[in-house]
Specification:
The protein is an alpha/beta fold. It has helices spanning 9-19, 25-35, 49-58, 118-121, 130-138, 161-172, 192-201, 215-221, 230-237, 262-272, 297-309, and strands at residues 2-3, 59-60, 68-71, 77-82, 88-95, 100-103, 107-109, 124-127, 148-151, 184-188, 205-209, 248-254, 278-283, 313-316.
Length: 339
């Protein structure tokens, strides 16, 4: 049976037309699903008994509660959600003084196999449905506190394009949560065709995993570079206007002795010069089997200062949740110790 939760208004309109429901029924269902966060078809009281009975014959309304929650000493929370075939996905809640961000997953594992990422090294086990992606947002106790959503958890969003786009539509459309797209950032390693499509079909912020400005060096740590060279990714991105409120940023994890030299900083300045973007420097979080080491704080500060002094807006992202394996690159969908 099809889950009503996760469907967009156009999808519900098609469903209602198929079932012979009144045309206004689709918006009523949307209101129950996303505004009122309804848990049962029976609770949709402004739908006729006949419509509700027909819905229950062929559809369901399903949510999944997290099966585990680990809490970091810095207040970060990592939720574990069940998926099919004994798989699990992880979601990270990041509370701050003036905001609360949720980092959500879009796949079970990942196809991209980035050498520094725990998720990538575990392989790919399937796409998450739109319902499973949205469920991470709707099913945590902190839902009402959320100010921002980042698609930076497990998986490559552009590899699960249709479901990811549908969830951003639920979050930003007036028939959904009616959030500003500025509250949402979707990441990608640079899957050019789908990333281009996303930029044209959505108004959410975009973050690209860069990690090395040299094509040949990036290939050694990111296999996706072979199909989507970062030079071509940046060339494509420069075709769009980023001077308004929509932001383009580049994620850059620093690895000791690999991509942290002045040569790398100079090349970043060269390829990003006169491009209104931001570079987020990320401290590498050591994990088993990853052949990299963490840079010193001094190296990270110097790298940031060099970029800023040469006209590239650069910040160092605060590291959160490392003690519970919730920091960047550490999500693995493993059953936690609290189960």
């Amino acid at each position: 049976m099809q889950n009503l939760f996760g469907l967009t208004l156009p999808q519900l309109q098609a469903l209602c037309a198929k079932e012979g429901f009144p045309t206004f029924t689709a918006k009523q269902i949307c209101n129950w699903l996303y505004d009122k966060r309804c848990q049962s078809i029976d609770d949709m009281t402004n739908l006729s008994l006949k419509v509700r009975a027909k819905l229950k014959e062929g559809y369901l309304l399903e949510h999944w509660s997290p099966v585990d929650c680990q809490v970091s000493k810095d207040g970060t929370k990592k939720y574990l959600f069940p998926a099919e075939d004994g798989q699990f996905i992880e979601t990270v809640y990041l509370p701050e003084k003036d905001r609360a961000t949720l980092c959500i997953s879009c796949q079970k594992g990942c196809k991209m196999n980035c050498q520094f990422c725990v998720t990538g090294r575990q392989g790919f086990h399937g796409h998450l449905s739109a319902a499973q992606i949205l469920n991470q947002i709707f099913s945590i106790p902190e839902f009402e506190n959320l100010t921002n959503i980042v698609y930076m958890g497990m998986g490559e969003p552009m590899d699960n394009y249709d479901n990811v786009l549908a969830t951003t539509q639920v979050l930003t459309s007036e028939w959904g949560l009616a959030w500003s797209p500025k509250r949402i950032t979707v990441s990608s390693v640079g899957v050019i065709p789908k990333l281009k499509q996303f930029i044209e079909e959505s108004h959410c912020h975009v973050a690209v995993s860069l990690h090395n400005p040299f094509d040949n060096e990036r290939l050694t740590i990111m296999p996706a570079q072979k199909a989507y060279p970062i030079s071509q990714v940046i060339e494509m991105l420069k075709q769009y206007d980023w001077t308004g409120q929509r932001r383009i940023s580049f994620e850059y994890t620093l690895f000791k002795g690999v991509n942290d030299s002045q040569r790398h900083a100079q090349e970043l300045v060269r390829i990003l010069r006169n491009f209104p973007c931001r570079v987020n420097l990320i401290r590498f979080h050591a994990s088993p089997e990853a052949p990299f080491s963490t840079c010193s704080p001094h190296t990270m500060d110097s790298f940031r200062d060099y970029l800023n002094s040469h006209g590239i807006n650069c910040t160092i992202r605060a590291s959160r949740g490392e003690d519970i394996m919730a920091a960047c690159g550490l999500l693995a969908g493993k059953v936690g110790k609290n189960i």
